[in-house]
Design brief:
Blueprint lengths: L1 H7 L5 E6 L4 E7 L2 E7 L2 H10 L2 E10 L5 E8 L4
Antiparallel strand pairs: 1-5, 2-3, 4-5
Length: 80
């Protein structure tokens, strides 16, 4: 997924996403159907962002102002 983000992001582009706060898998529910959730740990997300040309601008785990979601904001480097 990060290779795709990199391929589509212009220099300086922002990338914002949510993730789990720990590595693991969970099955939730959406409108009565099972919904798969998979997450990496923080170090793995940071390494993937770095490898694919993004610098982390902000990261908040379990942000109480965002429904306790873990939020990432990264910026595509100006040069590859």
């Amino acid at each position: 997924m990060f290779a795709r983000f990199q391929a589509h992001a212009a220099p300086g582009a922002a990338l914002m996403f949510t993730s789990g706060d720990v590595e693991g898998v969970a099955i939730g529910e959406l409108q009565g159907d099972p919904l798969y959730h998979g997450s990496l740990n923080e170090a793995e997300y940071r390494a993937l962002l770095e490898t694919h040309g993004f610098d982390v601008a902000a990261h908040v785990a379990q942000d109480p102002t965002c429904g306790y979601r873990t939020v990432w904001l990264a910026r595509q480097r100006d040069t590859p």
